[in-house]
Inverse folding.
């Protein structure tokens, strides 16, 4: 078989696999839209303008405002990323440039282990350790801050591992050239490593944000789940994911449809995030050239 | 795990029994059961025993909340619906009810809270935000944290019905999903007040979890008081079926109410209905 021929054969399953991924993604969005339609028809703008969230199966006597949960989701995620991004980056720099080789190996294994712990474990830890600690200071403890802290801990390994591999991908000759120019270790990091690895680090932060925005169980356990606009760090709020998890099993009719709408909004948020990331990455590439 | 073991046991028994047991047409086939998450684990275990005794029967149990169970049974999507709340009048007209047991709802506080009994009025005041410090009901100077269940839970419906409160009246600081989540939330907060199934609460308190079950108007929530009716905050556990249930459906409901499976009720802290 000629090389071209075998390549052609390989191409078919690859195309099929790529296409099915795209189709599945499309079908999921289509399902969300389809299931949200009853809510959009029967509830409509009230999803934004109702006084609060008091779902009942019949749209007429319920209230279905989802905006407080959208805002809460964004604030919780922003808090988690603001905490995890610098810490994750610092962890990557330590592991790559400051730790001795033996320490670096052990440290990296630890971070990898942390990355593998499922969200529900972080949530349980938050519920039995973190929330009572925060509660002793300012009850009830379950709060926006608790959720951001638990999520930050959860996504920190993602930031650390991916940005470290981006730093490792910086060509060695850059580093040697920097050393030849007499740059200090920090000088090399600041003016050579970080600018070259910028896109990889950005990808790390975006992936981590995606994980934080979609995390459900860990958030439900520590956030308090009261539907209202965030008014302080120590106030309980409810995230979109938590809303679906808490009520989907018990919902029917327009209530169920409104929950699918929550899911659609969540998917929309993630899409905006990805588009945003693409644009940022693009701009970086141009200025690199 | 226990459920899995029972399932395996049921399969093994079914395999052994196949040779000498003649197929009983009345108890062959598949039963779809949906509804209350309070009842589902119990019914699943009873189902495993039923399958062991009737190798031709398959009992499929799914959770989805009492309302889902009731509507599935009414629309014929399920053979049996499980409900841990009272049926509305419209629902009652379309379905046959089979009361199988009783579950109490206990008000729980943190173990370090010195309050051990509350009156009905005090409870209403606590849950609606009228009292926001434990000092006002004989406790320490500490803020009250009200732990409430998420919308759609039968426990919430029954709790509101007992105190004759509308949903909006509860001034919740925390909203939780299942019993475990509620128990952990109360155990982690000395000012918390919440409510859970008496069975789950008793088991956890005995295990050393930092919660306390309190008396309502001097009525103590225990399995004994739930059984003999001395504790008023209870709810019926109900199976519902369509107006004309199949022979298998009736056979299973009889099996669920049989004294031979009462030990399983005790495992979950429920009280089986008297014959």
């Amino acid at each position: 078989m000629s090389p071209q021929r075998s390549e052609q054969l390989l191409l078919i399953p690859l195309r099929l696999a790529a296409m099915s991924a795209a189709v599945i993604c499309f079908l999921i969005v289509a399902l969300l839209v389809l299931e949200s339609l009853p809510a959009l028809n029967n509830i409509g703008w009230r999803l934004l303008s109702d006084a609060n969230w008091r779902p009942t199966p019949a749209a007429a006597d319920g209230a279905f405002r989802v905006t407080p949960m959208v805002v809460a989701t964004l604030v919780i995620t922003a808090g988690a990323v603001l905490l995890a991004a610098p810490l994750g980056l610092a962890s990557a720099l330590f592991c790559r440039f400051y730790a001795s080789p033996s320490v670096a190996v052990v440290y990296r294994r630890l971070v990898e282990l942390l990355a593998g712990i499922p969200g529900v474990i972080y949530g349980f830890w938050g519920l039995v350790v973190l929330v009572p600690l925060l509660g002793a200071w300012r009850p009830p403890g379950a709060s926006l801050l608790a959720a951001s802290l638990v999520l930050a801990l959860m996504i920190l390994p993602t930031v650390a591992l991916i940005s470290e591999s981006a730093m490792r991908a910086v060509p060695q000759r850059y580093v040697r050239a920097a050393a030849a120019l007499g740059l200090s270790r920090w000088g090399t990091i600041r003016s050579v490593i970080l600018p070259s690895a910028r896109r990889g680090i950005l990808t790390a932060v975006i992936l981590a944000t995606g994980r934080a925005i979609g995390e459900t169980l860990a958030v439900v356990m520590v956030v308090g789940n009261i539907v209202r606009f965030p008014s302080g760090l120590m106030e309980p709020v409810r995230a979109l994911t938590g809303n679906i998890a808490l009520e989907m099993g018990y919902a029917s009719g327009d209530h169920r449809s409104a929950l699918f709408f929550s899911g659609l909004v969540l998917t929309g948020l993630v899409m905006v995030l990805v588009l945003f990331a693409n644009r940022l990455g693009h701009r970086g590439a141009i200025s690199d050239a | 795990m226990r459920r899995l073991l029972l399932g395996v046991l049921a399969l093994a028994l079914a395999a052994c029994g196949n040779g000498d047991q003649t197929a009983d047409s009345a108890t062959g086939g598949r039963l779809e059961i949906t509804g209350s998450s309070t009842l589902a684990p119990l019914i699943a275990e009873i189902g495993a025993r039923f399958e062991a005794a009737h190798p031709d029967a398959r009992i499929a149990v799914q959770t989805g909340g009492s309302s889902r169970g009731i509507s599935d049974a009414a629309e014929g999507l399920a053979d049996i619906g499980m409900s841990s709340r009272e049926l509305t009048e419209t629902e009652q007209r379309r379905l046959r009810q089979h009361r199988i047991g009783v579950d109490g709802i206990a008000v729980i506080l943190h173990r370090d809270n010195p309050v051990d009994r509350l009156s009905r009025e005090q409870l209403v005041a606590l849950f609606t935000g009228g009292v926001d410090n434990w000092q006002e009901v004989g406790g320490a100077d500490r803020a009250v944290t009200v732990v409430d269940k998420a919308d759609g839970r039968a426990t919430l419906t029954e709790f509101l019905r007992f105190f004759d409160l509308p949903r909006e009246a509860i001034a919740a600081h925390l909203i939780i999903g299942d019993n475990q989540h509620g128990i952990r939330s109360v155990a982690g907060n000395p000012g918390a007040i919440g409510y859970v199934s008496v069975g789950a609460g008793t088991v956890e308190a005995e295990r050393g979890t930092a919660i306390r079950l309190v008396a309502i108007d001097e009525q103590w929530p225990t399995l004994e008081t739930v059984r003999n009716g001395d504790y008023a905050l209870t709810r019926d556990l109900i199976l519902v079926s369509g107006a004309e249930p199949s022979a298998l459906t009736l056979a299973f409901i009889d099996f669920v109410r049989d004294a031979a499976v009462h030990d399983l009720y005790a495992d979950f802290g429920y009280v089986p209905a008297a014959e």
Summary: The interface with chain B takes residues 54-55, 57, 127-128, 131-132, 135, 139-142, 220-221, 224-226, 236, 238, 245-247, 249-252, 255 of chain A (CB under 8 Å). The two ends of chain A are 41 Å apart (CA to CA).
